[in-house]
Amino acid sequence: MKRWAALLRGVNLGKRKLLSKDLQAVAESLGFARVETLLASGNVVFDTNFPGPEIEAKLEAALLAQGLKTDVVVRDLEAMRAVIAANPYPEAASDHPSHMLVTFHRDPFPAEALERHGGLHLGPELLHANGRELYSDYRSQQGMRDSKLLQTMKKAKFPAVATARNWNTVNKLALMLAD
What we know:
4-stranded antiparallel β-sheet
């Protein structure tokens, strides 16, 4: 069996509630083994023989049956290690890891979306795309709270099937995948 991390989009924001124990139960009901959750933000790590796209479809369907419509993006240990190795902002990762995000996309991030975004956003945040990931350095705690980045990302038509995790969480997930 292979170990996977499933990242759910928009969980426990507003009225979209999902307890960690309920997420664990859903994953176990699908036959996944060694199921562990991380934080209360839609992170679950498990073992299964299913391939990534099938895991995403199965989890989305099972969660929908529980009343939660959400997107799921999965990564294995090799992919998560590649995400960490490709970090274009190592200073941010050590200086302010909770304000540096990795947005995980199901498909490769389209370069033209960053080009569209460049004409819309004048904030201090830094963005870098690599494969299926988009790295965002908010550069300060104040910048994250007051940032207009999410609004301009929407205007630039960034892919909707995506979910972000801060650098601390990315590293914790990698450790869980290696276990």
